[in-house]
Structure formats: structure tokens, C-alpha cells
Amino acid sequence: MYHPHQPLLWLEPEQPFPPIQEAWGPDSPAPGILCAGRDLSPTTLQAAYSNGIFPWYSADQPILWWSPDPRMVLHVDEFRLHPSMKKTLKKFSRTPGCEIRMDTVFPEVIEACSTSPRSGQSGTWIVPEMMAAYTNFHRAGLAHSIETWVDGQLVGGLYGINIGHAVFGESMFHRATDGSKIALAALVAFCRQQGLPLIDCQQNTRHLASFGAREITREAFLVQIQTLRDLPSPIWQFNPVMWQQLGI
């Protein structure tokens, strides 16, 4: 809990993260911020995500770690598929040359996300250091890309983290209409098929809420993550039969 004039905790290399309950509260200058420092190695990132913590900072800042309360989560059985989007998915799934791929061009996906314009944002938090760190995390088998391809061209996608049965969405992009939405729908279909119950969305946005994401308490989120993280991870491959999970 934040107190006026409280300094932000600085972590040295290999120093463990503090309990997420120590994150600054809603009355602070930065609600949800937990600490700063440490590094972005795969070991550090795995420890962070496994405990409901994620990095988020700008190019002119040190590494900052966050655990907001409440937490925005998409329970995959609550995914809201609007009629127009269902029609788009049916057309996509039946059109030759349209396909979902996973983990074939992770560096390209994260770079595209870093340059994708965001409403109300003048810059990006996916700085070069972040791109390098998550690419290493991908090589370690814990970060994944979901890619929308049309006639051999990457037209949209997203990337996220998977630890056990826990999935953490990070960022998405599109180069063609609905390119990122198709990738998100594919991720939901994949999660349903594999028994992965939720996708962490971190913070509330109207865009995520329109798909059925909702806020839960940080404590409830952590309880779920602590159970899911110890289960076996799935093999990240998309099969078109998975569209049936969405009634496609």
C-alpha cells in the first residue's frame, strides 16, 4: 500500500520480487506499480508472470514492474463473438490462403506490435530492450505469437506468455481489417481446446471489454495463476478444427 513520500523499491539482480500486495494503491501517483530494477532475463520474466507481475515502462525509464488491482481477465468461456465477427471468421476459415500460424515469425510480430499506433498513446512501451527480452523468452519456449496469414502475407497477430495453463496476453497489431481480432479469436479457440481457462489482459480497455473481458480482484487472479502455472503447458500449434470451439 502506498504512503506519501514512499520511495519505490529497487531490486538488485536476483533479488526476489516483493509480495504483490505491496503494490501502490489507487490513491498513489502510479496505482499498481510494485518495484523497479532487476533485469528482463527469461528467469526473471518467468518469476514475475508466475506471481501476477509484469514489466511496463518507457524508453526514458528504468525497468518498472506492475501488479494492478483489479486485474482485467478474459475467461475464454465468456468470449463475446459478435455476429459480424462470426461471419468474418467463417469466411476466413473457409478461404484458401487464409490461415492461423503460431510461433513462425515471433520477432516480426513483436516488432509490428511495437510500431502499431495506440489510441491515446504517443509512443510505445515495447522498447528495443523489451523486444530482445521477449524474443529470448520465446526462444525459451514461454512466449508465443498467434499470426493471421492471408496469401502468404502476415496481416495481423498478437503475442503473449504461457506458463503451465496460465496465458498472459501482451499486445496485438493488424495490417488488414480484423487481422488482430481473428488472431484473438484463434487464441480463444486454442485455449478452449487445450483447457486453458483464462487470458490475462492486465488493464481495462473498452476494446477488451467488448470481447467479454472483465475485472477481477488481484487476489482472485493470483489464486488462479498459482494453480494454473503448475499444470503442463500445451503444444502451441493451431489446427483449423479448433474453430469449432467458437461454433465456426
Summarize the SSE layout with pairings.
Layout: E1 10-11, E2 33-37, H1 42-49, E3 54-55, E4 64-66, E5 71-75, H2 83-94, E6 98-102, H3 106-115, H4 128-139, E7 143-150, E8 153-163, E9 166-174, H5 179-194, E10 198-202, H6 206-209, E11 214-216, H7 218-228
Parallel strand pairs: 1-2, 9-10
Antiparallel strand pairs: 2-4, 3-4, 5-10, 5-11, 6-7, 7-8, 8-9
Q: What this model shows, in words?
A:
The structure is a single chain. With 248 residues, this protein is α+β, with helices and mostly antiparallel strands. Helices cover 29% and strands 23% of the residues. The protein contains 7 helices and 11 strands. It has helices spanning 42-49, 83-94, 106-115, 128-139, 179-194, 206-209, 218-228; strands at residues 10-11, 33-37, 54-55, 64-66, 71-75, 98-102, 143-150, 153-163, 166-174, 198-202, 214-216. The strands form 2 sheets. It has a 7-stranded mixed sheet, sandwiched between helices. Strands 1-2-4-3 form a 4-stranded mixed sheet, covered by helices on one side. Strand 9, helix 5 and strand 10 (198-202) form a beta-alpha-beta unit. The N and C termini lie far apart (46 Å). Mean pLDDT is 94; it is low at 119-123.
